[in-house]
Amino acid sequence: EEALMMGITSVRELGGMFGQALHLLEQSGSIAAPHFHFAGRLISMTGGHADDQLMPLTEYERMDRQRISAGSLCNGVPECLKKVRENLRMQADVIKVCTTGGVLSEFDQPTDGQKAT
After folding, report:
1. Distance of alpha carbon 113 from alpha carbon 53, whole angstroms
2. Which helix (H) or strand (E) holds 74?
3. Which of 9, 38, 80, 97 supports an S-S bond with 74, CB 3.0-4.6 Å?
């Protein structure tokens, strides 16, 4: 509501855990908010930006399956298509794919290419 009162008419949430819930609240009129665009869970490859590399991979995969991690891991075309479809099923407005490391990634950098298109 504060953003709306400041004149902000549209906001986006690209890969966080609460985008779908905020979107539903805004759409239902339960909260006064700017128009809200969300991406669902960000998509990355194992070892990439969305992968919490300090956590054991089996634990992260468990959290991913339960959809309690902000990111979603995929490797190869079939897995990535499935993750995109899961986000579309959540009614995501956009899809965010992290194709490189990020500034907060433990073991890679934003300039490290990881996926070929």
Report:
1. 17
2. none
3. 80
